[in-house]
Amino acid sequence: MKIALRQITFACQSSFEKYARASRREQFLQTMDTVVPWSELEALIELHYPKVGKGRQPVGLGIMLRIYFLQYLFNLSDPAAEDALYESSVLRSFARPYPVTS
């Protein structure tokens, strides 16, 4: 079992948010998010993507497509991509195609 211990830094405090700047990774992912035609790619792949029914429920197409892009662009293996998603909030937020509502 893997336990992730996260050290809280001053940058994580809500009072320091006004001083935050986007990292190069964040800027790159924001640019990629606006440049890549996600809905058109999803429409092309959707016909061949596994459907809900028999067996295990597939991961959402939008999420999986974004994770594949992250793997390719950052040259990550499957385990490395999984670790990166657990460790980086920037990558986690990019992998979600739609904003999370709470």
Rg calc: 16 Å
Structural class: mainly alpha
% residues in beta strands:
under 5%
Largest sheet: none
Helix content: 40-55%
* Strand and helix order: HHHHH
- Measured between the Cα atoms of the first and last residue, the distance is 29 Å
Low-confidence stretches: none
Calculate the mean pLDDT score and round it.
79
Give the number of DSSP strands.
0
What does this structure look like?
This protein has a domain of 66 residues. The chain is built from five helices and no strands. The chain is globular, with a radius of gyration of 16 Å.
Give me the secondary-structure topology:
Layout: H1 24-35, H2 38-46, H3 61-73, H4 78-87, H5 89-95
Helix pairs in contact: 4-5
Gist of the model:
This protein has 102 residues and is an all-alpha fold. Helix content is 50%, strand content 0%.
Overview features:
mainly alpha; 102 residues; 5 helices
